[in-house]
Design a protein that fits this description.
Elements: H1 3-30, H2 40-49, H3 51-71, H4 76-79, H5 85-98, H6 104-122
Helix pairs in contact: 1-3, 1-5, 5-6
Family: Belongs to the drug/metabolite transporter (DMT) superfamily. Small multidrug resistance (SMR) (TC 2.A.7.1) family.
Pfam family, one: Multi_Drug_Res
Subcellular location: Cell membrane
Length: 123
């Protein structure tokens, strides 16, 4: 895989991970809510105007464009598994930013993911 292909794949993965983190920050800001007929409009307005939510959606849009560019250069059977790097990034960032648990089991899973991506990248 060429350097440009790697950059596109990793950029797509990181943008997707960033989108998830921004959406989580946005929902933390809005708070817990339930969708029902009575609060659909107020909650919808809160979500639609929350800067983190908007940033997360923007990251998703950009990540789709970058991902399409990556898929034009890389086999999908190689590119798609690389999305699992996002799990690693999100687990570590969620621990750091939101204080989420990073248990031994999660760390073991992260190790398996990293090893799997390493094996795929070698082919």
């Amino acid at each position: 895989m060429s350097a440009v292909s790697w950059i596109l794949v990793l950029s797509g993965v990181l943008l997707n991970a960033c989108a998830q983190l921004l959406l989580k920050a946005g929902t933390n800001s809005v708070g817990t809510f339930a969708f029902n007929a009575g609060n659909l409009l107020p909650v919808g307005i809160k979500l639609a105007t929350e800067p983190h939510i908007l940033g997360g959606l923007a990251c998703y849009v950009i990540s789709v464009v970058v991902w399409i560019m990556a898929l034009s250069r890389v086999e999908v059977s190689l590119a798609y598994p690389m999305l699992s790097i996002g799990y690693v990034v999100n687990a570590l960032a969620a621990w750091w930013l939101f204080g989420e648990a990073l248990t031994l089991e999660r760390l073991a899973g992260i190790g398996v993911i990293i090893f799997g991506v390493f094996l795929l990248a070698r082919t």
